[in-house]
């Protein structure tokens, strides 16, 4: 056979080098062909929307209100700058009595249940609270945040974003970061509303041991994480969080660094998939409807 070597005739070091080269070649080919990876054409404006008629007549008013106020259209426009490998569907749907929201990787779809919106409406205060939270804020904040949280899951999946830690915590951070990219009035309004929701859920709650196993943080933890992100992003706009002792000073001291850490991750892992020309147009717009009166009792889903 002359100078040709057989597999069995290779020296151990030669075989190891060749094996390693073959291994990485196979891995590279697998990544390039793997369905759902952000390799190949990436296009902006791939958001689809759907208002599914609710099977429960009790949710008909919610269905009509969110359609009338073009809630999904607003999210579609807001997310237009993101380049995706395939369409992402955002939809409202009935969920057989379950108050829930989720992202489905197989369908590339974010579903917000009418039951979830109904629960937000039922838990929002009828009158402005002692802390100054209006009914409008308590409805708008959670309504916006739930979409952004689930969209966070969608981005992790569709852009193959690496995650250290729990995915639910990372989705919370993405949602908080995006809330804080709104104008100051809108950021304040939504953060206050989401904080009310988490604070209301945590009030008087004594968690059982098994609740610590949940993939989501406890409401009290999510409350403080959100406030820390807000204060870290703008310690002037959210100065009262510390002044009124909603956020302990011991936590507040490191919030600027926490916000910078999330900002760096977004810039490193997600910003490369953003159409920057469209981003500039997006930042110039107001995305939420004007605030309702402080004593508003309409129960409308304002967005």
How would you characterize this protein structure?
It is a single chain. This protein is an alpha/beta fold. It folds into two domains: 79 residues, no CATH class; 149 residues, no CATH class. Helix content is 50%, strand content 7%. It is built from twelve helices and four strands, in the order αβααβββααααααααα. It has a four-stranded mixed sheet. The chain is globular, with a radius of gyration of 23 Å. The termini are far apart. 31% of the residues are buried.
Please give the structural blueprint:
Elements: H1 12-33, E1 47-51, H2 60-68, H3 71-78, E2 88-93, E3 101-104, E4 109-113, H4 114-123, H5 135-158, H6 167-179, H7 184-202, H8 219-233, H9 239-243, H10 249-252, H11 255-269, H12 276-283
Parallel strand pairs: 1-2, 2-4
Antiparallel strand pairs: 3-4
Helix pairs in contact: 4-5, 5-6, 5-7, 6-8, 7-8, 8-11
Q: Any descriptors?
A:
12 helices, disordered C terminus, 50% helix, 7% strand, 4 strands, 2 domains, 303 residues, four-stranded mixed β-sheet, disordered N terminus
Strand portion, in percent? 5-15%
Find the count of extended strands (DSSP E, 2+ residues). Answer: 4
Stretches with pLDDT under 50, minimum 5 residues:
1-10, 12-36, 293-303
The value of Rg in angstroms is 23 Å
What's the helix count?
A: 12
Describe the oligomeric state of these chains in a short phrase. Answer: single chain
Which outline best applies?
globular
**Major β-sheet annotation:** 4 strands, mixed
Helix fraction by DSSP (H/I, runs of at least 4): 40-55%
SSE class: alpha/beta
SSE order in H/E notation?
A: HEHHEEEHHHHHHHHH
Number of domains: 2
End-to-end C-alpha gap: 77 Å
**How confident is the prediction overall: mean pLDDT?**
85
Question: Main sheet: which strands, in order across?
Answer: 1-2-4-3
């Amino acid at each position: 056979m002359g100078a040709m070597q057989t597999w069995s005739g290779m020296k151990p070091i030669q075989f190891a080098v060749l094996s390693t080269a073959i291994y990485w070649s196979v891995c590279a080919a697998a990544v390039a062909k793997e369905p759902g990876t952000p390799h190949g054409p990436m296009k902006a404006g791939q958001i689809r929307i759907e208002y599914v008629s609710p099977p429960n007549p009790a949710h008909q008013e919610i269905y009509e209100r969110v359609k009338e106020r073009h809630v999904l259209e607003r999210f579609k426009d807001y997310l237009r700058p993101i380049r995706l490998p395939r369409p992402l569907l955002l939809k409202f749907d009935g969920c057989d009595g379950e108050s829930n929201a989720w992202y489905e990787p197989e369908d590339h779809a974010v579903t917000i249940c009418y039951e979830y919106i109904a629960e937000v409406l039922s838990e929002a205060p009828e009158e402005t609270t002692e802390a100054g939270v209006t009914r409008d804020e308590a409805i708008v904040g959670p309504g916006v945040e739930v979409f952004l949280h689930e969209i966070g899951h969608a981005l992790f999946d569709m852009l193959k974003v690496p995650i250290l830690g729990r995915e639910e915590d990372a989705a919370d951070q993405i949602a908080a970061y995006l809330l804080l990219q709104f104008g100051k009035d809108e950021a304040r309004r939504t953060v206050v509303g989401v904080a009310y929701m988490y604070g209301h859920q945590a009030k008087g709650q004594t968690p059982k041991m098994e609740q610590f196993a949940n993939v989501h943080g406890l409401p009290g933890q999510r409350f403080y994480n959100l406030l820390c992100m807000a204060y870290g992003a703008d310690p002037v706009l959210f100065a009262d969080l510390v002044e009124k002792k909603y956020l302990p000073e011991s936590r507040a001291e490191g919030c600027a660094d926490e916000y910078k850490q999330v900002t760096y991750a977004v810039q490193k892992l997600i910003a490369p998939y953003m159409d920057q020309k469209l981003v500039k147009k997006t930042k110039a717009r107001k995305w939420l409807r004007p605030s309702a009166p402080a004593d508003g009792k309409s129960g409308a889903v304002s967005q």
